[in-house]
Amino acid sequence: MRWNVVSVRTLAPLELAVRFADGTEGKVRFEPSHLCGVFEALKKPDVFRQARVEGGAVTWPGEIDLAPDAMYQEIKRSGEWVLR
To answer: Three-state SS across 10-54?
Structure first.
């Protein structure tokens, strides 16, 4: 599917660069206020840097992942997905 993530890399604390199967590229940025619940572990820089692609989605240890379809739609629209 076009919204499958094929690569991810950490740009800065709480910021990622992603590329999708159709060549679309953009950034994902977490606002600190979003780092609660399941995402709380991402407050630790060493955990955040462990972002990887698994099954077409951005994932982290501890069964943390991001919805690739929602990410794709926002990046296609504005070049960046900000999680607030």
So the answer is: EEECCEEEEEECCCCEEEEEECHHHCCHHHHHHHCHHHHCCCEEE
Full residue range of the structural domain in which residue 57 is found? 5-83
Judge contact between 71 and 18, C-beta under 8 A. Answer: yes
The whole-angstrom separation of Cα 84 and Cα 70 is 14
pLDDT (tens, 9 = 90+) of the chain, 84 residues, equals 789 999 999 999 999 999 999 999 999 999 999 999 999 999 999 999 999 999 999 999 999 999 999 999 999 999 999 999
How many structural domains is the chain composed of? 1
Ordered strands of the 57-60 beta sheet:
52-54, 57-60, 64-65
- For the domain that residue 35 is a member of, what is the CATH number? 3.30.2020.10
